[in-house]
Amino acid sequence: MTTTIKMISLATLTVICLATSKVKAQDAATENKTTFSIETDPSTFVFKGYAFHFRIKPKNSKHLVIGAGTYGLDLPTIMVDMNKDNKDKGWNVRINSAYSLFGEYYFKDANAKWYIGLQAGIQNFKNTNDNIANKESKYSNLILMPSIGYNWQPFKFPMYVKPWFGV
Q1: Which positions ≥6 away from 99 have C-beta within 8 Å?
Q2: Please, what's the largest Cα pairwise distance for the chain?
Q3: In terms of pTM, does the model score above 0.85?
Q4: For the residues of 37-100, what is the DSSP string, one character each?
Q5: What is the pLDDT of residues 110-131, one digit of tens each?
Q6: Region 48-75: what's the mean pLDDT?
Q7: What DSSP element (H or E) covers 144?
Q8: CB within 8 A of 20, min separation 6: which ones?
Q9: What are the residue boundaries of the structural domains of the chain, listed by start?
């Protein structure tokens, strides 16, 4: 099975599971109980990757969501070439795996509208170069990233759009 077919199958299976299960992808209602949700980032599949996040809104919390996640992807050429020393040199950079913990504080209700967040984790990279056969470098780095974003749920179906920016 090709990688593309595997990724499409995984994305389809995820949507079907979310649509037919009791686990919600983020219910904006504030409840007096701990709620759990799962999410993925479809953009990672475009870059030959994956993403899975487990999220918790603690009991009696109106604004806070915490969680853990894992992801991997090929960095797009435009990002690799942002360093002028890399531009058009044949570099390929992949986050083979990454694991992180995060927290998000929503200004309105948990999982609704504007939020600020913080992510801490580790990213495991693999670099190759099209001009150098059979060679690769691997390394890891720690990440501590503040972020800001917006959670928009345009449908009653538990699916949302969440553009965000991290530094």
Answers
A1: 68, 69, 70, 121, 122
A2: 58
A3: no
A4: EEE--HHHHHTT-EEEEEEEE-TT-SSEEEEEEEEEEEPPHHHHTTSTTTTTS-EEEEEEEEEE
A5: 888 999 999 999 999 999 999 9
A6: 95
A7: strand 132-151
A8: none
A9: 3-166
